[in-house]
Design brief:
Blueprint: H1 9-17, H2 20-40, H3 50-58
Helix pairs in contact: 2-3
Length: 64
């Protein structure tokens, strides 16, 4: 989890709501999302960027 410097309150809450076996996947997805957001955003906004989601799908992320 190279990009996560400090977990926000919302990150911690969302992570805690997941079963323990999905928390690592959640944090890996956050890393991939943050990496992809550097390509598609310039203002560091936290809005959903559908290009980022498409990149993640192309990279192999799938709903289990």
């Amino acid at each position: 989890m190279g990009n996560i410097v400090a977990k926000s309150e919302k990150h911690t809450e969302a992570e805690a709501a997941l079963p323990a076996n999905l928390r690592e996947t959640f944090n890996l997805l956050i890393d991939d999302y943050m990496d992809a957001s550097e390509t598609h955003t310039s203002d560091n906004s936290r809005r959903v960027n559908y290009n980022i989601l498409a990149d993640l799908v192309q990279a192999g992320w799938r709903k289990q």
